[in-house]
Amino acid sequence: MTHAAGHLPVLLDTVLRQLAPAAGETAIDLTAGRGGHAEAMARAVGPTGRILLCDLDAENLAFAADRVRTAAGAVPHLHHGTFALADRATAALGWRADCALADLGFASTQMDDPARGFSFQADAPLDMRLDASRGETAAELLARLPERELADSIFRLGEDPFARRIARVVADRRLREPIRTTQQLAVAVVAAYGAKARQSRMHPATRTFMALRILVNDELGALRGLLSAMEQGARAAVAGAPGWLAPGARLGIISFHSLEDREVKHAMAAWEADGLGERLTRKPAEPSDAEVAGNRRARSAKFRAFRLARAADRPAA
After folding, report:
1. N or C terminus of the chain with fewer C-beta within 10 Å?
2. Contact 101/37 with Cβ under 8 angstroms?
């Protein structure tokens, strides 16, 4: 099953235990990917339940939907677009979610497909869009971004100490020739590292590629949009007002970057302080050594979960 999907769902047992999807409930996989989490959630809610799948990648969304139909016998509803608008997609169906999961990592199939331009392992067009049907490519972004802004982005999003040097080399090289391929960018980064490239524990271009991917897809902006939608849904739910989240709903987010995890941590702490519910994970759940051994891409995963209060549970003002 996993081999055919080309992707291993991260922290699956932990997600199911904390979000506890149950028969007859409504579940949302906000980042369906290859359908690993979605299939398990669909099985849990069963034939009397409902499931909505969301994803920016149309090909992965279709694959996940087929997987859920075939393996779990469910009929999923689909939203092709950013999870920041999942509240609208759910409300349009007239549903209220009992549990919702966002896995902020990208699917292995996206990284492993050279044509997508996420990796420097093969030479390919510098694309990096999660939704290949719209938006600016990494090559287009790299061509227009001022040197200082590029340096700041690589330092902030990629946490690369050589960010200034990298931006300088990229700016010099693009004056002579547009940087359109993954290898052109990787070679430029290695040149910026100089002799330090041989001492680096990871490929010197790793952090720059990550920073560009985050920029191209506005990943932090989308996460903030999702957290805002979750907060608004939570306020409506505990007040007994109409909304996209049900009272007592469980919300989970898997992040892979310290900036993402910080946003989630602070948001959930603020929700709890406002009496909207309780954090189910005081500290983020992380993969076991055994899971990391079987799936190296899980090693930086952090999972946080939150359960909304019900109107009767909320303390009086």
Report:
1. C
2. yes
